[in-house]
Amino acid sequence: MSRIERFSAELERAGLAGALVMHPVSVYHLAGTGQPANLLVVPGREPVLYARRYGELVRASSRVADVREGAGFSAVDVELDGPLGMELDVLPAALVARAEKRFGSVADCSEALWAVRMVKDAAEIAAMRESVTLFDALHEAMCAHLRPGITELELSAEIARALRRAGHDGVVWQHRWDAKLAMEGSLASGPNLSTVSRGPVTVTGVGLGEAFPMGASRRAIRRGDLVNVDLGLNKAGYHGDMARTYAVGELPDGVERLAGICRELEDLGLGAVRPGVTAGSVYDVTREAAIRLGVEPVFQGGGPYIGHGIGLELDEPPVLGPGVETPLQEGMVLTVEPKLISPAFGAVNIEDDVVVTAQGCEILGDIPRCLFVVSDDGAAAQVPRPG
Protein backbone atom coordinates (compact mmCIF):
# COMPACT_ATOMS: atom_id res chain seq x y z
CA MET A 1 0.00 0.00 0.00
CA SER A 2 1.42 3.41 -0.98
CA ARG A 3 1.78 6.29 1.48
CA ILE A 4 -1.14 8.13 -0.15
CA GLU A 5 -3.31 5.03 0.09
CA ARG A 6 -2.44 4.65 3.76
CA PHE A 7 -3.23 8.32 4.34
CA SER A 8 -6.56 7.96 2.49
CA ALA A 9 -7.49 5.06 4.77
CA GLU A 10 -6.62 7.15 7.84
CA LEU A 11 -8.85 9.97 6.54
CA GLU A 12 -11.78 7.57 6.29
CA ARG A 13 -11.15 6.33 9.83
CA ALA A 14 -11.12 9.94 11.01
CA GLY A 15 -14.42 10.73 9.28
CA LEU A 16 -12.89 13.26 6.87
CA ALA A 17 -14.18 13.56 3.31
CA GLY A 18 -10.74 14.44 1.99
CA ALA A 19 -7.62 16.47 2.72
CA LEU A 20 -5.63 19.24 1.11
CA VAL A 21 -2.00 18.75 2.17
CA MET A 22 0.08 21.95 1.93
CA HIS A 23 3.00 21.65 4.35
CA PRO A 24 6.06 21.15 2.10
CA VAL A 25 7.48 18.29 4.17
CA SER A 26 4.21 16.35 4.08
CA VAL A 27 3.77 16.99 0.35
CA TYR A 28 7.26 15.62 -0.21
CA HIS A 29 6.53 12.57 1.94
CA LEU A 30 3.33 11.69 0.13
CA ALA A 31 3.94 12.94 -3.42
CA GLY A 32 7.73 12.87 -3.73
CA THR A 33 8.24 16.46 -4.85
CA GLY A 34 9.89 19.30 -2.97
CA GLN A 35 8.47 21.89 -5.37
CA PRO A 36 5.64 24.22 -4.21
CA ALA A 37 2.44 22.22 -4.57
CA ASN A 38 -0.81 21.28 -2.82
CA LEU A 39 -1.92 17.64 -2.70
CA LEU A 40 -5.62 16.79 -2.76
CA VAL A 41 -6.45 13.34 -1.38
CA VAL A 42 -10.07 12.14 -1.46
CA PRO A 43 -10.79 8.52 -0.50
CA GLY A 44 -11.96 6.51 -3.50
CA ARG A 45 -10.52 8.98 -6.04
CA GLU A 46 -7.15 9.45 -7.67
CA PRO A 47 -5.00 12.07 -5.91
CA VAL A 48 -4.43 15.41 -7.60
CA LEU A 49 -1.32 17.53 -7.19
CA TYR A 50 -1.75 21.27 -7.82
CA ALA A 51 1.53 22.91 -8.81
CA ARG A 52 1.64 26.38 -7.30
CA ARG A 53 4.69 27.17 -9.47
CA TYR A 54 7.18 25.38 -11.71
CA GLY A 55 4.73 22.85 -13.14
CA GLU A 56 7.35 21.07 -15.25
CA LEU A 57 9.56 20.49 -12.22
CA VAL A 58 6.58 19.21 -10.23
CA ARG A 59 5.66 16.73 -12.98
CA ALA A 60 9.25 15.53 -13.28
CA SER A 61 9.66 14.84 -9.56
CA SER A 62 6.21 13.76 -8.35
CA ARG A 63 4.87 10.24 -7.86
CA VAL A 64 1.35 11.58 -8.51
CA ALA A 65 0.15 11.11 -12.09
CA ASP A 66 -2.44 13.90 -12.14
CA VAL A 67 -0.53 17.18 -11.86
CA ARG A 68 -2.41 20.42 -12.57
CA GLU A 69 -1.42 24.07 -12.57
CA GLY A 70 -3.00 26.16 -9.83
CA ALA A 71 -1.68 28.40 -7.09
CA GLY A 72 -4.86 29.34 -5.21
CA PHE A 73 -7.77 27.57 -3.58
CA SER A 74 -9.98 28.51 -6.54
CA ALA A 75 -7.96 26.10 -8.70
CA VAL A 76 -8.84 23.12 -6.46
CA ASP A 77 -11.74 21.42 -8.16
CA VAL A 78 -13.56 19.47 -5.48
CA GLU A 79 -16.98 19.17 -3.90
CA LEU A 80 -17.04 17.17 -0.70
CA ASP A 81 -19.81 15.66 1.37
CA GLY A 82 -18.11 16.36 4.69
CA PRO A 83 -15.19 18.28 6.22
CA LEU A 84 -11.96 18.90 4.34
CA GLY A 85 -8.86 17.96 6.29
CA MET A 86 -5.97 20.42 6.60
CA GLU A 87 -2.83 20.45 8.76
CA LEU A 88 -4.10 22.70 11.52
CA ASP A 89 -1.05 21.96 13.68
CA VAL A 90 1.24 23.87 11.30
CA LEU A 91 -0.66 25.99 8.75
CA PRO A 92 -1.15 29.74 9.38
CA ALA A 93 -4.58 30.66 10.73
CA ALA A 94 -5.15 33.21 7.95
CA LEU A 95 -4.58 30.51 5.33
CA VAL A 96 -7.04 28.19 7.03
CA ALA A 97 -9.62 30.99 7.24
CA ARG A 98 -9.37 31.50 3.46
CA ALA A 99 -9.80 27.78 2.95
CA GLU A 100 -12.97 27.80 5.04
CA LYS A 101 -14.44 30.51 2.80
CA ARG A 102 -13.72 28.38 -0.27
CA PHE A 103 -14.51 24.85 0.97
CA GLY A 104 -16.77 25.29 3.98
CA SER A 105 -16.06 22.95 6.87
CA VAL A 106 -12.35 22.41 7.58
CA ALA A 107 -11.02 19.96 10.16
CA ASP A 108 -7.60 18.85 11.37
CA CYS A 109 -5.99 15.98 9.45
CA SER A 110 -2.63 16.12 11.21
CA GLU A 111 -3.23 12.98 13.28
CA ALA A 112 -4.07 11.06 10.11
CA LEU A 113 -0.84 12.30 8.55
CA TRP A 114 1.25 11.43 11.59
CA ALA A 115 -0.24 7.94 11.63
CA VAL A 116 1.47 7.45 8.27
CA ARG A 117 4.63 9.49 8.87
CA MET A 118 5.52 8.14 12.33
CA VAL A 119 6.23 4.63 11.03
CA LYS A 120 9.12 4.63 8.56
CA ASP A 121 9.53 2.24 5.65
CA ALA A 122 12.80 0.51 4.76
CA ALA A 123 13.92 3.27 2.39
CA GLU A 124 13.32 5.96 5.02
CA ILE A 125 15.24 4.02 7.67
CA ALA A 126 18.14 3.55 5.25
CA ALA A 127 18.15 7.31 4.56
CA MET A 128 18.22 8.11 8.27
CA ARG A 129 21.00 5.60 8.84
CA GLU A 130 22.98 7.53 6.21
CA SER A 131 22.22 10.86 7.89
CA VAL A 132 23.49 9.62 11.24
CA THR A 133 26.90 8.91 9.67
CA LEU A 134 27.34 12.70 9.38
CA PHE A 135 28.20 12.71 13.08
CA ASP A 136 31.48 11.02 12.15
CA ALA A 137 32.48 14.26 10.38
CA LEU A 138 31.51 16.30 13.43
CA HIS A 139 33.55 14.04 15.72
CA GLU A 140 36.59 14.36 13.46
CA ALA A 141 36.22 18.16 13.49
CA MET A 142 35.99 18.20 17.28
CA CYS A 143 39.17 16.13 17.59
CA ALA A 144 40.96 18.35 15.07
CA HIS A 145 39.95 21.76 16.45
CA LEU A 146 38.87 21.51 20.10
CA ARG A 147 41.77 23.20 21.88
CA PRO A 148 42.12 25.88 24.57
CA GLY A 149 41.67 29.36 23.09
CA ILE A 150 39.27 28.55 20.25
CA THR A 151 35.93 30.29 20.65
CA GLU A 152 32.60 28.48 20.56
CA LEU A 153 31.77 30.37 17.37
CA GLU A 154 35.02 29.40 15.66
CA LEU A 155 34.55 25.76 16.65
CA SER A 156 30.95 25.87 15.46
CA ALA A 157 32.14 27.17 12.08
CA GLU A 158 34.61 24.29 11.76
CA ILE A 159 31.80 21.85 12.52
CA ALA A 160 29.55 23.46 9.93
CA ARG A 161 32.30 23.25 7.30
CA ALA A 162 32.91 19.57 8.06
CA LEU A 163 29.20 18.74 7.94
CA ARG A 164 28.64 20.45 4.60
CA ARG A 165 31.66 18.74 3.08
CA ALA A 166 30.22 15.43 4.29
CA GLY A 167 26.90 16.10 2.56
CA HIS A 168 24.66 17.78 5.15
CA ASP A 169 21.70 19.43 3.39
CA GLY A 170 22.50 22.65 5.24
CA VAL A 171 19.02 23.02 6.73
CA VAL A 172 17.25 21.43 9.69
CA TRP A 173 13.49 21.08 9.36
CA GLN A 174 11.43 21.47 12.53
CA HIS A 175 7.67 21.17 12.83
CA ARG A 176 7.12 23.66 15.64
CA TRP A 177 6.31 27.13 14.34
CA ASP A 178 8.62 28.75 16.91
CA ALA A 179 11.58 26.39 16.52
CA LYS A 180 14.85 27.24 14.80
CA LEU A 181 18.18 25.49 14.86
CA ALA A 182 21.48 26.19 13.14
CA MET A 183 22.88 23.45 10.92
CA GLU A 184 25.76 22.89 13.35
CA GLY A 185 23.27 22.66 16.20
CA SER A 186 23.59 24.06 19.69
CA LEU A 187 27.19 24.19 20.94
CA ALA A 188 27.98 25.24 24.50
CA SER A 189 30.99 25.17 26.80
CA GLY A 190 31.90 25.82 30.42
CA PRO A 191 29.34 27.93 32.29
CA ASN A 192 27.19 28.26 29.15
CA LEU A 193 26.27 24.58 29.46
CA SER A 194 23.87 25.17 32.32
CA THR A 195 21.97 28.06 30.71
CA VAL A 196 18.80 26.59 29.20
CA SER A 197 17.57 29.29 26.83
CA ARG A 198 14.91 30.21 24.29
CA GLY A 199 12.74 27.13 23.81
CA PRO A 200 14.17 23.61 23.96
CA VAL A 201 14.59 22.14 27.42
CA THR A 202 18.06 20.81 26.68
CA VAL A 203 21.67 21.99 26.49
CA THR A 204 21.17 25.06 24.32
CA GLY A 205 24.09 27.43 24.80
CA VAL A 206 23.51 31.18 24.89
CA GLY A 207 24.06 32.25 21.26
CA LEU A 208 25.45 35.55 19.98
CA GLY A 209 22.72 37.77 21.43
CA GLU A 210 19.14 38.05 22.53
CA ALA A 211 17.80 37.90 18.95
CA PHE A 212 18.65 34.18 18.97
CA PRO A 213 19.94 33.22 22.45
CA MET A 214 20.86 29.65 21.54
CA GLY A 215 23.96 27.95 20.17
CA ALA A 216 27.58 29.08 20.00
CA SER A 217 28.76 32.30 21.65
CA ARG A 218 32.06 34.17 21.38
CA ARG A 219 33.33 32.64 24.62
CA ALA A 220 36.91 31.33 24.44
CA ILE A 221 37.11 27.67 25.46
CA ARG A 222 39.55 26.78 28.26
CA ARG A 223 41.46 23.70 29.26
CA GLY A 224 39.31 21.49 31.49
CA ASP A 225 36.04 22.78 30.01
CA LEU A 226 33.21 20.51 29.03
CA VAL A 227 31.82 21.18 25.55
CA ASN A 228 28.49 19.82 24.35
CA VAL A 229 27.28 19.56 20.75
CA ASP A 230 23.65 18.64 19.99
CA LEU A 231 22.45 18.87 16.40
CA GLY A 232 20.18 17.72 13.62
CA LEU A 233 21.86 15.68 10.89
CA ASN A 234 20.03 16.09 7.59
CA LYS A 235 21.10 14.28 4.44
CA ALA A 236 18.68 14.00 1.51
CA GLY A 237 15.81 15.24 3.65
CA TYR A 238 15.92 12.71 6.48
CA HIS A 239 17.25 13.62 9.90
CA GLY A 240 19.33 12.17 12.62
CA ASP A 241 19.57 13.85 16.02
CA MET A 242 22.67 13.20 18.12
CA ALA A 243 24.64 14.73 20.95
CA ARG A 244 27.96 14.13 22.67
CA THR A 245 29.95 15.86 25.40
CA TYR A 246 33.69 16.52 25.10
CA ALA A 247 36.29 17.60 27.66
CA VAL A 248 39.23 19.82 26.69
CA GLY A 249 42.52 18.15 27.67
CA GLU A 250 41.43 16.84 31.05
CA LEU A 251 38.31 15.66 32.78
CA PRO A 252 36.88 17.89 35.55
CA ASP A 253 36.52 16.32 39.00
CA GLY A 254 33.35 14.29 39.44
CA VAL A 255 32.42 14.21 35.76
CA GLU A 256 33.54 10.61 35.18
CA ARG A 257 30.80 9.48 37.58
CA LEU A 258 28.22 11.68 35.83
CA ALA A 259 29.24 10.34 32.42
CA GLY A 260 28.77 6.80 33.71
CA ILE A 261 25.32 7.65 35.04
CA CYS A 262 24.32 9.28 31.76
CA ARG A 263 25.37 6.15 29.86
CA GLU A 264 23.47 3.96 32.33
CA LEU A 265 20.33 6.06 31.87
CA GLU A 266 20.63 5.74 28.10
CA ASP A 267 21.11 1.98 28.36
CA LEU A 268 17.94 1.72 30.45
CA GLY A 269 15.99 3.92 28.05
CA LEU A 270 17.13 1.90 25.04
CA GLY A 271 16.25 -1.30 26.85
CA ALA A 272 12.71 -0.05 27.45
CA VAL A 273 12.03 0.68 23.75
CA ARG A 274 10.03 -2.08 22.07
CA PRO A 275 6.76 -2.42 20.15
CA GLY A 276 3.60 -2.11 22.21
CA VAL A 277 4.94 -0.12 25.17
CA THR A 278 3.80 3.46 25.54
CA ALA A 279 6.07 6.38 24.76
CA GLY A 280 5.59 7.60 28.32
CA SER A 281 6.82 4.34 29.85
CA VAL A 282 10.32 4.88 28.40
CA TYR A 283 10.51 8.21 30.23
CA ASP A 284 9.23 6.61 33.43
CA VAL A 285 12.01 3.99 33.38
CA THR A 286 14.76 6.60 33.06
CA ARG A 287 13.29 9.02 35.59
CA GLU A 288 12.93 6.23 38.17
CA ALA A 289 16.57 5.34 37.59
CA ALA A 290 17.60 8.99 37.96
CA ILE A 291 15.88 9.05 41.36
CA ARG A 292 17.58 5.80 42.36
CA LEU A 293 20.99 7.11 41.26
CA GLY A 294 20.56 10.40 43.09
CA VAL A 295 20.54 12.70 40.05
CA GLU A 296 16.82 13.42 39.78
CA PRO A 297 17.25 17.17 40.63
CA VAL A 298 19.51 17.66 37.56
CA PHE A 299 17.85 15.06 35.31
CA GLN A 300 16.97 16.51 31.88
CA GLY A 301 17.51 20.03 33.18
CA GLY A 302 13.95 19.84 34.47
CA GLY A 303 12.54 18.97 31.07
CA PRO A 304 9.80 16.32 31.11
CA TYR A 305 11.01 14.03 28.32
CA ILE A 306 13.75 11.54 27.41
CA GLY A 307 13.42 11.63 23.61
CA HIS A 308 11.13 12.03 20.63
CA GLY A 309 10.41 10.85 17.11
CA ILE A 310 12.47 12.03 14.14
CA GLY A 311 12.22 11.74 10.37
CA LEU A 312 11.68 14.38 7.72
CA GLU A 313 11.59 16.82 10.64
CA LEU A 314 13.71 16.92 13.75
CA ASP A 315 10.84 17.14 16.22
CA GLU A 316 8.24 14.53 15.30
CA PRO A 317 5.84 12.62 17.55
CA PRO A 318 5.77 10.70 19.72
CA VAL A 319 7.42 12.52 22.60
CA LEU A 320 8.91 10.11 25.12
CA GLY A 321 7.43 12.02 28.02
CA PRO A 322 5.26 11.49 31.10
CA GLY A 323 1.74 10.30 30.39
CA VAL A 324 2.18 9.97 26.62
CA GLU A 325 0.02 6.96 25.75
CA THR A 326 1.13 6.57 22.11
CA PRO A 327 2.17 2.92 21.64
CA LEU A 328 5.55 2.39 20.03
CA GLN A 329 5.46 0.55 16.71
CA GLU A 330 8.02 -1.35 14.70
CA GLY A 331 9.54 1.07 12.20
CA MET A 332 9.37 4.18 14.37
CA VAL A 333 12.67 6.07 14.63
CA LEU A 334 13.29 7.74 18.00
CA THR A 335 15.93 9.63 19.92
CA VAL A 336 16.94 8.65 23.44
CA GLU A 337 18.76 11.57 25.06
CA PRO A 338 19.52 11.56 28.80
CA LYS A 339 21.25 14.64 30.12
CA LEU A 340 22.33 16.03 33.47
CA ILE A 341 22.40 19.83 33.75
CA SER A 342 23.50 21.96 36.71
CA PRO A 343 25.53 25.15 37.35
CA ALA A 344 27.68 22.97 39.63
CA PHE A 345 29.25 21.04 36.74
CA GLY A 346 27.68 22.33 33.49
CA ALA A 347 26.17 19.44 31.58
CA VAL A 348 26.76 15.89 30.45
CA ASN A 349 24.64 14.74 27.52
CA ILE A 350 24.41 11.73 25.22
CA GLU A 351 21.87 11.26 22.44
CA ASP A 352 21.40 8.48 19.92
CA ASP A 353 18.82 7.46 17.35
CA VAL A 354 17.16 4.05 17.23
CA VAL A 355 14.71 2.25 15.00
CA VAL A 356 12.07 0.19 16.80
CA THR A 357 12.37 -3.47 15.79
CA ALA A 358 10.30 -6.55 16.55
CA GLN A 359 12.78 -7.49 19.30
CA GLY A 360 13.34 -4.01 20.76
CA CYS A 361 15.44 -1.39 19.01
CA GLU A 362 18.56 -0.96 16.90
CA ILE A 363 20.96 1.96 17.30
CA LEU A 364 21.66 3.90 14.11
CA GLY A 365 25.30 4.89 13.92
CA ASP A 366 28.48 3.59 15.53
CA ILE A 367 30.06 6.55 17.35
CA PRO A 368 30.97 5.27 20.85
CA ARG A 369 28.32 6.16 23.41
CA CYS A 370 30.44 8.06 25.89
CA LEU A 371 32.07 11.36 26.80
CA PHE A 372 35.36 12.13 25.00
CA VAL A 373 38.46 13.77 26.46
CA VAL A 374 40.31 15.45 23.57
CA SER A 375 44.05 15.91 24.08
CA ASP A 376 46.37 18.44 22.46
CA ASP A 377 47.33 15.93 19.76
CA GLY A 378 43.67 15.30 18.81
CA ALA A 379 43.36 11.89 20.47
CA ALA A 380 39.97 11.24 22.06
CA ALA A 381 39.84 9.10 25.21
CA GLN A 382 36.49 7.56 26.06
CA VAL A 383 34.71 8.04 29.43
CA PRO A 384 33.46 5.65 30.66
CA ARG A 385 36.15 3.55 29.08
CA PRO A 386 35.11 0.69 26.79
CA GLY A 387 34.80 -2.73 28.35
Q: Could you walk me through the main structural features you see in this protein, from its secondary elements to its overall organization?
A:
By secondary structure, the chain is an alpha+beta fold. The chain folds into two domains: 115 residues, Creatinase/prolidase N-terminal domain (Creatine Amidinohydrolase, Chain A, domain 1), CATH 3.40.350.10; 262 residues, Creatine Amidinohydrolase, CATH 3.90.230.10. The protein is 30% helix and 21% strand. The protein has ten helices and 18 strands. Strands 4-3-2-1-5-6 form a six-stranded mixed sheet. The protein has a five-stranded mixed sheet with strand order 7-8-9-17-18. α1 runs antiparallel to α5 and α9 packs antiparallel against α10. The protein is elongated.
In short:
The chain is an alpha+beta fold and about 375 residues long. It has ten helices and 18 strands. Helix 7 packs antiparallel against helix 8 (about 150-165).
Distance between the termini: 45 Å
Reading off the top of the CATH hierarchy, the class of the largest domain is best stated as Alpha Beta
Largest sheet: 6 strands, mixed
Give the C-alpha Rg.
22 Å
- CATH homologous superfamily descriptor of the largest domain: Creatinase/methionine aminopeptidase superfamily
Structure annotation, total helices: 10
Number of domains: 2
Structural class: alpha+beta
What's the CATH topology name of the largest domain?
Answer: Creatine Amidinohydrolase
